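REVIEWER CHECKLIST
Item 1: Sequence provided? yes
Item 2: Single chain? yes
Item 3: Sequence as submitted:
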Amino acid sequence: MRIIGAGTRDDIHYVERHTFWTAPNLITLARFLLVPVFVSLVAAHHYVWAFWALAVLFSTDWVDGYVARRFNQISSVGKWLDPLADRLALIIVAATYVIFHVAPAWFVWAILIPDLALFFNALFLFKGSPELPVSILGKVRTAFLMLAAPLLLLAQANFSWAPALHAVCTVLLAVGSLLHVAASVGYLIAAQRKAREQAKGTTSGTDLGEPAADGGGEG
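Item 4: Structure as written out by the authors:
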């Protein structure tokens, strides 16, 4: 069973849509609107309900990608909206955990600093998203964080096994955070490589008398 890239079909030709109004984009929007609900539940110490809210929030990250591929609803808007919503949601979740003492302070810094580095790097090099493919390391990182973060909420509840769960989830969260930093370094290197390749292509096009505005590519 395919987990990464679930929903991909070999029997159709994928066509990128140039509209916001697709089912995956609406799922992404609904997912992000669930973030303030999650924050309010943690603030009120309703940890079990917050667990379910975060579980739904994280699971729909997989659902929107599946729907996009399964029903050929990949869109240009979704390509930047989905990762933007993911990054903002994760930063807010991490900040909420630290503010309300669910997780140590290193959690939010391990998420925030790499994401800011990626943001400013993309802004400087591409004036926007570099549109890099998601790496395997990034997928593994996401899996660790999506497992550890919700379960850490259950560890705040008054269950007899909560202390043991808290210890295990803290370790998983630390691993996920380290993988986040590593994945971010990989994306930085990939972005730098893509920028150099684009610059080389533009230079080659200009040397051949092709207008740089046309992209300057060799093709």
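Item 5: Key structural point noted by reviewer: The first helix runs from residue 23 to 43.
Item 6: Recommendation: ____
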